[in-house]
Amino acid sequence: MEKFCTNCGHSNNSTNQICVECGTSLTKEPKQASAPQGPKKPLPFKTKLLAGIAIVLLASIIGLYTWGTQTASAETAVSKFFEALQEKDAATLSKYAVLSTGEELTEKEASAFIDLYQNITPIELEEMATVEKNGKFAGIFDAHKVILTPQQVSFYFPYDGLNLNLNGESVEAMQNADGEYVFSGIAPGNYEAEFAFDDGETVFAHLFDLTVEYQEDTSYVTTIEEDLPIGSTVFQVTVAEYSPSYTTKIVIGEKEYPVDESGSTEDIGPFLLDGSMNVQAKVEFPWGAVTSDAVPIDGEYINIDIAKLDKKTEGKLIDQFAAFLEEDIKAAGTRDASVYTSLTPGKLKEVTDTLDSWKENEYFFKGSLTKINFDGESVQLLSDGVSVTGEVVIEGAYYYQSEKPVVETEKYPLYAKFIYDSEKKKWLVEDFDQDNYYDGDFTVEPLQTVEGSKKVYEVKGSTDAVKETSSESVSSDDQAMEIEDFMNQYNSLSVMAMNSGDFSHVSYLISEDGPKYQESADYVDYVYSKGITEEHLGTSLEKVEKIDANQVKVTTIDRFIIHKEGDSSEKEYRSVTILISDGDGWLVKELVSTKEI
Fold first, then answer.
1. How do the domains of the chain map onto residue ranges?
2. 151-223 shares its CATH topology with 230-307
3. Among positive and negative, which fits the CA dihedral 426, 432, 438, 443?
4. Model confidence, pTM
5. What is the DSSP string of 398-450?
6. CATH architecture, domain 473-597
7. Each residue of 376-428: pLDDT tens digit?
8. CATH of domain 151-223
9. How does DSSP classify residue 199?
């Protein structure tokens, strides 16, 4: 008996259990009679409530899973990244991007990226970034973020202490042996950059714009092309345009740097080269240190020429120049070279020979020193000394014995070269001469005039063919004139010493064995410390009393102008002083008394 498949209608043997055509079962299960059922009981409320909650919870879980999966997906990360890029939303973009080093992208880095790549296309983004799983979202779902490759930039700067800030954030740096800084871990973008330098002495900040573009080659380093106002400098020091002969240093701030024999320093730095820092040169001369004017540091090679003395030393030399000129007028008038107190031995011999020839030829000078004018260029530093040039004004006449002298006013520049005697600790005149080729006009500030004594010097009887007396037969009048001249010189140099605070101006006219030496040294220091200055108007001899063969007691009338605390007053004193002869001249031994008249 055949069976037909109820599914496909194919004919099968009665013994087949399944259709050989389609595989449908051909066996029919006998239907069992249903047991009679009674009426259904309604479900309890609690069961219904739990069932409802379970259904809602299941739906929520399914919805949460679906939302979390979509939110953390790669597609969402890229979509949000582009949305933030278009809207310039740095805060959002920083949440969907990270550097390949694992560091989070800061908002400032995101802002720099937006500024450079706001118009980037998806294809361009695909070429410079990847989207990868990065962390978890809601602690459950794998989060995806845009992965950016950090870049490197370099800058050659051979000094320690340089930092790079991008949009206010410091960048990791490494300095190699060649003096090149390499800054790494930088997200591509446009930055407001700052080089900040601080080596403990020099501090500066340099602002500039920096574009860091994406480079596929991770070993590629972008070079920063910036000129910084900082570098090292070689300093060249000259003294009156010659290499210094004495110990020389340059001074920058509180630091000193040595100068070699050629006057040059090593390459020193770094310094700001914008002129905001200054350098000075200091030379240790035998008489003391001389410091140059401040010179701005504005280049890699700076020349410093020291051609001026300090004001204190200038003042000393001007005073000594004036004292020397007074001696020179006196020496010419008396034809006596022994009156010089500050000539070098060589120059003294030269002048002595000249005056001896005057005597042989019966040549004379009669005259007085009226004044000497100085200006701001009168004192000049030389490589081996100092020159002083003054405009000398005299009343004088040169004549032979057979002539009658006609005294006239003369004005001429006179040059003197001073050198310093380290043993005697005093300035000496090595050379002097009337400088007819001097091209100055004595008008450069500050101007200064030193008055001469106006005392007329001459050989007595020169116009009457009266011969000069020898040193062995000096008359009392001649001795009195000699002592008066000495006391004028002594008082003038004492004033010079007090005004400058330098006892050496007058110390050589005082006997070291007498009480006056230490008294004068202390008094010079005291007057100078109080700011008191004086002018010597003149000294006249009143009386000479002989004590013994080598000592005399002299009474003089001394006139001064004293400047004290803004007031000036003219004073006149009667002084009694003991002088002692040292064989070559007089020295002050003791001040017996001095009273204001």
1. 71-148, 151-223, 230-307, 308-465, 473-597
2. yes
3. positive
4. 0.53
5. EEETTS----EEEEEEEEEEEEEETTTTEEEEEEEEE-TT----S-SSSPEEE
6. Roll (3.10)
7. 889 998 888 899 999 999 999 999 988 888 999 999 999 999 999 988 888 99
8. 2.60.40.10
9. S
